[in-house]
Amino acid sequence: MVNMKLLIGLTVLGFLSLTYCCEDPAQGAINLAQNGAATQSSDVHPILGTASKAIDRNNQTNYHIGSCTHTKLEDNPWWKLDLLKSYRITQVIITNREDCCKERLQGAEIRVGDSPNVRDNPICATIMDVSSGARIPLCCKGMEGRYVGVFIPAPSSIVTLCEVEVYGQKIEPGPRVCW
Ligand SMILES: *[C@@H]1O[C@H](CO)[C@@H](O)[C@H](O)[C@H]1NC(C)=O
Prior knowledge:
By secondary structure, the protein is mainly beta. The protein has one helix spanning 2-22, and strands at 37-40, 78-95, 109-113, 123-126, 135-151, 163-170. Strands 1, 2, 3, 4, 5 and 6 form a 6-stranded antiparallel β-sheet that branches. It starts with a helix and ends in a 9-residue tail after the last strand. The model has no long low-confidence stretch (mean pLDDT 90).
């Protein structure tokens, strides 16, 4: 009986810690993206749509207002954030464009790791559903990395992001906070 209770307890605890990591970040959590540096595979325009528009603290979803990124139409486009050191990433929240074209992010891969080459890093999540609103929360379950990339593994594609928020913790010795 005791063992059963222990088992149930551990299962509930495991579930809670898992959901904790996938929920919206705690109020006041620091968005790591704001101290990073953004680049992308190409710029469709020298001012409108540059890579830093995804970390400009403005989640405006109309591209023409000038707060969203936009690569050229190309094969395997990507956007990348360099956090300057490795973090244990819990959530990545992407704000999609809404004035048109939200389906362009369908199938985009969020990749986290220490390689500056986006496609060499493991996938933390894939955007499966762009229909449920501009704000797309993705769970990285404590995956470690200095780079957070958004990669579309397809020909003739465009990466457009209106905001990217990244939440996580410093990597410190000791037990993992988040599995
Ligand atoms: C943009 O940010 C505001 C303020 O935090 C929030 O209320 C709103 O829902 C956000 N919009 C999107 C599309 O995420």
